[in-house]
Design goal:
Blueprint lengths: L3 E5 L1 H23 L2 E5 L6 H7 L9 E5 L1 E3 L9 H15 L8 E2 L8 H14 L5 E5 L14 H4 L5 E4 L9 E4 L1 H4 L4 E6 L5 H7 L19 E7 L4
Parallel strand pairs: 1-10, 2-3, 2-6, 3-5, 6-9, 9-10
Antiparallel strand pairs: 4-8, 7-8
Helix pairs in contact: 1-2, 2-3
Length: 233
């Protein structure tokens, strides 16, 4: 299936991303009896979550996991999960739409970091992998914690892994590998804001590979959607 590219205003893109996620979740629940949504952190996705809460989604059959996480406590201001919890998960749980057990944070344990990652991987394996992944491109074209021309995007790991040398702080992060993300059944990447224009140019450069621009990974999935904001000023 060809990649669907949508360019619109920021607000319109945010609404369309939410609508796309809802449609995909409904489809996979109908097909598989459940749907696994992998999400990222970052400022670009908080408004998407606000719109997603308003969509008709069979949340009782949806599980939410992280595609990457900073190696911090869940209540840290740097936690990717904390943002999702505040804007999406807690409101859904409070309204009894989403069972609390369907939200799966990565719980970092500094003394047993690898064990924590293996436990998170076993959770995803039991759910049979990601159905939909929502990613946001960084200024350099990275998604999750997979960075261009960095060992993170070159790794041959098939699951989540720990990194201690992320080019963008904090240096220590947990991330889904390239191969793990490529197993997803559908993917979305967003390029929101003027600071992402360099990444957008890399993404559209046919001479660049996934190694040069990890965001290109999304286009290799069975279903892929790309959202780019048209800046008005």
């Amino acid at each position: 299936m060809a990649t669907t590219i949508i360019e619109a205003s920021r607000d319109e893109c945010e609404k369309k991303v939410a609508e796309t996620i809802a449609r995909l979740l409904n489809k996979f629940v109908e097909e598989r009896g459940k749907a696994i949504l992998g999400i990222c952190g970052g400022r670009s996705i908080s408004a998407i979550f606000n719109h997603l809460r308003e969509q008709a989604v069979p949340w009782k059959h949806v599980h939410i996991m992280m595609v990457d996480e900073r190696c911090v406590t869940l209540n840290s201001l740097e936690s990717n999960y904390r943002l999702a919890q505040e804007t999406l998960i807690n409101p859904l749980v409070a309204s009894k739409k989403l069972p609390a057990d369907n939200a799966h944070p990565f719980v970092y344990d500094e003394t047993h970091a690898i064990k924590a990652i293996l436990k998170y991987q076993s959770t995803l394996d039991a759910l049979e992998g990601f159905d939909v992944i929502l990613t946001s491109s960084g200024e350099d074209g990275h998604i999750a914690a997979l960075y261009p021309k960095h060992n993170s995007i070159r790794k041959e790991n098939t699951g989540f892994f720990l990194m201690t040398d992320a080019p963008k702080p904090p240096a220590k992060k947990m991330t889904a590998s390239r191969k793990l993300l490529l197993k997803a059944r559908a993917g979305i990447v967003v390029f929101f804001g003027k600071e992402k224009e360099k990444a957008w140019a890399l993404f559209n450069d046919p001479t660049k590979t996934i190694i040069d621009c990890p965001a290109k990974l999304i286009t290799h999935l069975p279903e892929s959607y790309v959202f780019h904001t048209k800046e008005t000023s």
